[in-house]
Design brief:
Number of strands: 12
Number of domains: 2
Helix content: 40-55%
CATH topology of the largest domain: Aspartate Aminotransferase, domain 2
Bound molecules: pyridoxal-5'-phosphate
Strand order of the largest sheet: 2-8-7-6-5-3-4
Largest sheet: 7 strands, mixed
CATH architecture of the largest domain: 3-Layer(aba) Sandwich
Distance between the termini: 50 Å
Number of helices: 13
Shape: globular
Strand content: 5-15%
Order of helices and strands: HHEHHEHEHEHEHEEEHHHEHEEEH
Radius of gyration: 21 Å
Length: 396
């Protein structure tokens, strides 16, 4: 066997997102690009702000000596200062560059975090449905993920969390706005969660980290202000990136922020910096660090995503689909009209529409639509979604 048993097993179980991606490529070859309506990918479709490209040009035309060398493992000081000052302004907390570690995307950040905090056999609780890669990320570092149910409208169920936290629970990971549901947790919900985790840490005499995975924090609708988790619990570690808010998913740039009031922060930050080095990231991509520094207060056009959401939600509502109205990210997670979400996704394939079955997120009976697609693709997909709804007695 040329590869390890664990990687072989993982390949055999390959994620639904991946499988749909590969199927989409095959179908596009067979039917032509414009005849396949692929809503299965979470790839930001907008271009980055023009200021980002201006900064790249500026850096290329007047290179700073040494700018392509190895950087400090935690990242370039000026970039971390820019991130910290934005966080300080938005949260009122005393963030400095010392609490920021630049990372290779939120995915890289989560691997660094898990490597740093997990002992063998420890677990990370995650409210389902959730981003499936968490399982692999925790597994990479000897830990495991345990999914727990959410309550009405995919909101956190504090009763369940209270029951499920054990002395083996090292962390709970939340993701708001959520992939796949688009749900945003309110400040009241986060406050109650913080109070519960404080109570449980004391009762079990253990440190339970709250990991907040926030790559969609700035893709948020209806004038909502992003409810940060920091005010409510100090053992908080945030993993995030510029993948979605600046449409830089391929550039692998993000950061980790440690709560400035967490009393174990010095050791934690030292650990995170070490893990960045020995996981082979060494430092987050240097040129990207400088480029995002100049774009730190910019965002892609969130209004465009909101228009896509509105178009999709109105149409699906008329067709008779049931779903929770998303307040952020660029996903919708409707109930499938039949119990078997895989079978339903396969039916949609016959209409050349690709979605991801809910099982791929620990949310069976549902399916995920990504509306980060060109308007043409969304329009084409609506036709197929309507036919599939009608086939199951919905208005369509
Ligand atoms: C919930 C969630 N977390 C993390 C990531 C990874 O993001 P990044 O591209 O910043 O690594 C994604 C990507 O889709 C995501 O949806």
């Amino acid at each position: 066997m040329s590869i390890s048993q664990s990687v072989r097993k993982a390949l055999e179980a390959s994620s639904w997102v991946r499988r749909m991606f590969e199927l989409g490529l095959e179908m596009k070859k067979q039917f032509g690009d414009d005849q396949v309506f692929d809503l299965s990918l979470g790839n930001p479709v907008l271009e980055p702000p023009k200021e980002f490209h201006q900064e790249l040009r500026r850096l290329a035309e007047a290179p700073i000596p040494g700018m392509h060398r190895y950087m400090p493992n935690a990242g370039i000081k000026e970039t971390r200062m820019a991130v910290a000052s934005r966080l300080a302004r938005e949260t009122g907390l005393s963030f400095t560059e010392n609490e920021i570690i630049m990372a290779s995307g939120a995915g890289g950040a989560l691997n660094v975090i898990f490597k740093t905090i997990l002992n063998p056999g420890e677990e990370v609780l995650v409210p389902a449905p959730f981003f499936w890669e968490y399982i692999a990320y925790a597994g990479n570092h000897g830990g495991s993920v345990r999914a727990i149910p959410t309550g009405k409208d995919f909101q956190l169920d504090l009763g369940v969390i209270e029951e499920e936290v054990t002395s083996a629970t090292r962390a709970i990971i939340i993701n708001s706005p959520n992939n796949p549901t688009g749900v945003v947790y309110s400040p009241e919900m986060l406050k109650s969660l913080g109070a519960l985790l404080s109570k449980l840490s004391e009762k079990l005499n253990t440190l339970i980290y709250l990991i907040s995975d926030e790559p969609y924090a700035r893709i948020i609708f209806d004038g909502l202000e992003y409810p940060y988790v920091y005010p409510f619990y100090s053992p908080t570690i945030v993993a995030t990136s510029f993948s979605k808010d600046l449409s830089l998913a391929g550039e692998r740039i993000g950061y980790i922020a440690v709560h400035p009031d967490f009393n174990g922060k010095l050791e934690l930050i030292e650990g995170l910096t070490y893990s960045t080095r020995v996981l082979g990231f060494v430092n987050a991509p240097a040129m990207m660090q400088r480029a995002v520094q100049a774009s730190i207060d910019l965002n892609v056009d969130v209004g465009w995503y909101q228009t896509q959401r509105d178009r999709l939600c109105r149409s699906l509502e008329d067709m008779g689909y049931q779903f929770v109205h998303p307040q952020g990210a660029f996903y919708l997670f409707p109930k499938a009209p039949i119990a078997d979400d895989v079978a339903f996704a396969q039916e949609l394939i016959s209409h050349r529409v690709l979605v991801t079955p809910g099982v791929g997120f620990g949310g069976p009976g549902h399916f995920r639509i990504s509306y980060s697609v060109e308007e043409r693709v969304l329009e084409g997909a609506l036709h197929g979604l309507s036919l599939a709804a009608r086939a199951h007695g919905l208005p369509g």
